Amino acid sequence: MPENVYITIMNPNAIMPSYAHTNDAGMDIFASEDTYVMPGQSVLVPTGLKMAIPDGYEMQIRPRSGLSLNTLLRIPNSPGTIDSGYRDEIKVIIYNASSSTETINKDTICTTESKGNLQGVYLIRRGDRIAQMVFSSVVHTQLIPVDSLDGIGSNRNGGFGSTGMSDLSEPSK
């Protein structure tokens, strides 16, 4: 794991990412600008940060569980990958899963502090925690074309629910 990742704060409203607790895997990322997200809309939320991620690593952008539980804001490409060669501003894709078509007024605007998966327009405010970032090592592999995978490793035969589901229609005896 890289101990040093160089970061540039390019916006005076940007907040340095930080771990909320000593043993957390991810650092909180903050919005550097107010951003409205209409129902059904995806937006790029700026962080005001640039980073030099070391070669051999990626930065993953992941949802914050409280934001996903309490609002209809989602990170649709989760986890998002930021490669080591990317040096532009870090932005987070946020999607408003609300289907509301209510007339917009100040009383129907939700925030990241709203509770209960509210429908409507969301205002992400400057300084709001919008996601978390986790650094991960990257393994490069070589793909080798073959005619068949028979005899290469083992095949557990199955996928997409093949490990079984309990039958919920019958009460247990």
Question: Could you provide a short overview of the structure?
Answer:
3% of the residues lie in helices and 31% in strands.
Model regions low in confidence, pLDDT < 50 over at least 5 residues: none
Structural class by sheet pairing and helices: mainly beta
Order of helices and strands: EEEEEEHEEEEEE
Gyration radius (Cα, Å) is: 21 Å
CATH fold topology: Deoxyuridine 5'-Triphosphate Nucleotidohydrolase, Chain A
First-last Cα distance: 50 Å
What is the correct CATH architecture?
Answer: Distorted Sandwich
Helix content: under 10%
**Which CATH class applies here?**
Mainly Beta
The H-level CATH homologous superfamily, spelled out, is Deoxyuridine triphosphatase (dUTPase)
In DSSP terms, counting alpha (H) and pi (I) runs of 4 or more, how many helices? 1
Any idea what the shape is? globular
How many domains? 1
Question: What is the number of strand segments?
Answer: 12
What does the model show?
This protein has 173 residues and is mainly beta. It has one domain: Deoxyuridine 5'-Triphosphate Nucleotidohydrolase, Chain A, CATH 2.70.40.10. Helix content is 3%, strand content 31%. It is built from one helix and twelve strands. It has a four-stranded antiparallel beta sheet, with no helix packed on it. The chain is globular.
List the helices and strands and how they pair.
Layout lengths: L5 E4 L17 E4 L4 E3 L4 E5 L2 E4 L4 E6 L2 H6 L2 E2 L5 E4 L7 E6 L12 E3 L9 E4 L4 E9 L36
Parallel strand pairs: 10-11
Antiparallel strand pairs: 1-5, 2-12, 3-11, 4-9, 6-8, 6-12, 7-9
